[in-house]
Structure formats: structure tokens, C-alpha cells
Membrane protein (Novosphingobium endophyticum), 142 residues
Amino acid sequence: MPVTNQTLIFLPVLAVVALTLVAFIRMAAARAVAAKSMNADYYRAHLGEPEPEAARAAARHWDNLFELPTLFYAGCIVAFVLGAVGTWTLVFAWGFVAARLVQSLVHMTYNNPAHRGLAFVLGVVFTLALWVDVAQAILAAA
């Protein structure tokens, strides 16, 4: 059953956008530090000695936020356009946000791949559930 305020779906979207902007700032800061301690020419074509681990992890984290989250964004937008934002849609969207926040915290702190991987898998499950919810709305409207 759709919720009265369909725009609520954009609150979890804003949360992931904010996380992405924080990741950008963290990457920029890590690269600024790295550029001081290495040959800055590396940044012309990303060739030569690699960045220090902290800068590489920050850059990889930034890249990750343009992979699975694109399916999250698309699912949220489709749910909104169809007027199909329901309680479960919001639960799945916020579940994705929570999983992504945990994954980000792990990745940018102690970076345990098992813990990060578990958060990633939970994010995939929430994204899949979001899309199953959206698919039901699409099929019901067809």
C-alpha cells in the first residue's frame, strides 16, 4: 500500500548522496596528502608508482558509490514516478542506506574485508528487495 507522502523515498536517496559527498571529501584529502609525499605527475594519467594505501582505499570507496547505488537510485526514482512508494519500499531503501553506511565505516576505518563484505551483501539484498517491490508495482500497472 502506497504511503501518503511519496517524496519520503528521497530521504534515503539524500542520505546516500551525502555519504557520496563525504567520500569525495575524504578521497580529495587523502590524495592531497599523497601528492605531497609522491611524484605528483602520477595524477596526470595514474601511471607509475601507485598511491599510498589510504589514498587508494579512499578512491576505491568513492568508485564503489557509483556502482550498486545506481540501482538503488533508479529503484527509488521508479517507485516515486509510479506512485508506488509504500512502507516496504521505504524499509528496503533505508535498509540499503544502513548497510552502505556500515560498509563505508568499515572501509574507511579498519577495513576488514569480511565485515565490509557482509555489509555489501546486505546492501545487495536490500536493493534486490527494493526492485522486487518496484517490479510488483510495474506488473500491477501493466
About this structure: The chain has a mean pLDDT of 93. The CA atoms of residues 92 and 126 lie 5 Å apart. The helical segments are 10-37, 42-45, 53-64, 68-82, 87-108, 113-141.
